[in-house]
What we know:
Elements: H1 4-12, E1 21-32, E2 35-47, E3 72-75, H2 92-110, H3 126-131, E4 141-144, E5 152-153, H4 160-171, E6 176-177, H5 181-188, E7 193-198, H6 205-216, E8 222-225, H7 228-233, E9 240-245, E10 251-255, H8 264-274, E11 279-281, H9 287-292, E12 297-303, H10 308-311, H11 313-321, E13 328-334, E14 355-360, E15 365-367, H12 376-387, E16 409-410, H13 414-421, E17 427-430, H14 437-442, H15 444-457, E18 465-468
Parallel strand pairs: 6-8, 7-8, 11-13, 12-13, 16-18, 17-18
Antiparallel strand pairs: 1-2, 3-4, 4-5, 7-9, 9-10, 12-14, 14-15
Amino acid sequence: MDLTGDLEMLRSRAFVLKEGVDYRVKVSFKVNREIVCGLRCLHLTYRRGRPGELMQPLHPWPPAEPGDTQKSLWGCPCHRHCPLPTDAPWCGHCQRLAPAFAQAAAALRDESSPARLGKVDATAQTALANEFGITSYPTLKLFRDGNRTHPLPYTGRMDAKGIVGWMQRRAGPSATLLQDPDTAATFVDSQDLVVVGFFKDLESEAAQVFYEVAGDVVDMPFGVAEAAELFEAYGLSADTVCLFKKFDEGRTDFPVDPARGLDAAELTQLLRVHRLELVMEFTNETSDHIFGAKIPHHMLLFLNKSSSGQLQLRDDFRAAAGTFRGKVLFVVVDVAGYGADVLPFFGLTPADAPTLRLVKMENNRKYQMDQDVFSETAIRTFVQAVLDGKVKPRLLSAEPPEDWDTRPVKVLVGKTFEQVAYDETKNVFVKFSLVNKVILHFLMHCTMLHYTYIRYGEGAWAPTGRFVG
């Protein structure tokens, strides 16, 4: 397929193309019922007679110290092969992680940790990438005690604090052994949130699962106990995981089912949910926990905290929250504070407060009362109606362009999406993309796809399908 015209188009739009460089565009697609159902643009740039140059990462990665390669190695295969002479978006994750990775390496070195961080360039070390099944970038793995066959996948946050915390938890015992009531009481009182596993046999399968979870959930301290006097002190008779917290109900117990045992994913999710306050305030400090809990629905109260009248609305909001714990997370958003940045996402302004919205996190569908009523009963009734599928979502939509249906590629907005995309008489291929023309101008791969997309939209597929974007 000759796409020379597309290169001329790029030149005319002020893209800088180097002399002596061949620019080739490969478009891969497959046909499904006579329409193109998949397009992917891969821009390959290389100099005449020799392979293309590899871009260096924005920040140098900390080298592993001699002798540490097998003992304790982080493998972060960083896909540094950037086809364009500027940072390509698909390399951005590696470049953004680089400074955090360097900070984590320095922090571990300063505390004399035996752990060391290293890197592997998967574009050069293809044999290693294949051996360890690396398919996405960056990928982080921990090699412990020279074990080459079973490296541990990284499960923490992609920032310096997350990396250091995860490594510290993995390097030492993941849970503190509590041997007597005084030690246990001191541990429970040490922080606002602690987890203690009570097991009659610390070698049991359930206890091992608990240790596994403790190694992954690095932002909470974990303790473990097996002494009979500790079971008695905390009113327990069987294996139980207890979450102690200095808010709400103070303690939440998760008894271990003797038949099923303890499931790591289930326990992790329970801890994520119950570590949150019954009503959370959306702030910079809480946002990671709010979204990390993976609670399927969020009920939001938008208010102005500088208004005493609006602050009183939190009481009924909180009273309604207990019924839906684990299913719906209740969140207060201050429209005059940190929450101001999310208002456009809901089509709101500070003047709209106080108001309520419920969001289904799976698809970002938003639900709104016909008229805001802030009583406990009204809130509970509304939330239950949404969960029961009795309330239709509120769609935020721009007005469709006048000529939206006359173009080769139809331009969709919220009001026309379902009409076109769910047309049972056609196969519809939809491209979701940025609409900011300034940003789009600098994303060469988006621009190339845009014009290729239009070319196909003008082609012979129109009778049996539609291209929209």
